[in-house]
Amino acid sequence: MIDLKTSDTNTLDRLVAKLRRHPDAFDPGVNPRAVRVVLTSSAPLAERFGNYPAFIFFDGSHANYTPEQLARVCMISYNFKKLSRWKGKTPLPDEDRLRLSETIKKVHALGKPVRFWGAPDTETAWKTLLELGADYVNTDKPEACAAWLRK
């Protein structure tokens, strides 16, 4: 994933130009084992996905894409804080559990993995989100999370 920090299309255009110089590394049409490039944060609007090469994929932010747009979405990511105020230290409230579970099911029905950014960064939260079916754990504590996953 490449986290774009500016909404300026010049940044994305420069990135695409650099990646095009290495089709053997980034273009699955040239190399089936190419690195999958997924843009997140300041990615373009879905209506503009088609303006970029087919080897560029996007981190989706909702579940209402056209079939063509959805083909360019690698995963769908939600702001956890818009779905729950849970701090990850106590059991997840039932109402929040249901809301998160429904969100995960909706994304999985589209055939896409789901992640939540801004989620609590605790062992309880990691465990709960994985039990609910989240496909990725977002963390700013990679060593602690890796150690926990190895348990």
Question: In a nutshell, what does this entry contain?
Answer:
It comes from Ereboglobus luteus. The protein is built from six helices and five strands, in the order βααββαβαβαα.
Q: How does this model look, in words?
A:
The protein is of the alpha/beta class. It has 2 domains: 1-60, no CATH class; 79-112 and 119-151, no CATH class. It is built from 6 helices and 5 strands, in the order βααββαβαβαα. It has helices at residues 9-20, 23-26, 67-70, 94-109, 123-132, 142-150; strands at 2-4, 37-41, 56-60, 73-79, 114-117. It has a 5-stranded parallel beta sheet with strand order 1-2-3-4-5. Strand 4 (73-79), helix 4 (94-109) and strand 5 (114-117) form a beta-alpha-beta unit. The chain is globular and about 50 Å long.
Topology:
Blueprint: E1 2-4, H1 9-20, H2 23-26, E2 37-41, E3 56-60, H3 67-70, E4 73-79, H4 94-109, E5 114-117, H5 123-132, H6 142-150
Parallel strand pairs: 1-2, 2-3, 3-4, 4-5
List keywords for this structure.
alpha/beta; 6 helices; 151 residues; five-stranded parallel β-sheet; globular
**Main sheet attributes: strand count, strand direction, barrel closure:** 5 strands, parallel
The run of helices and strands is EHHEEHEHEHH
Structural class call reads alpha/beta
Radius of gyration: 17 Å
The total count of helices amounts to 6
Shape label? globular
Helix content: 25-40%
β-strand percent reads: 15-25%
Question: How many strands?
Answer: 5
Number of domains: 2
Mean pLDDT: 95
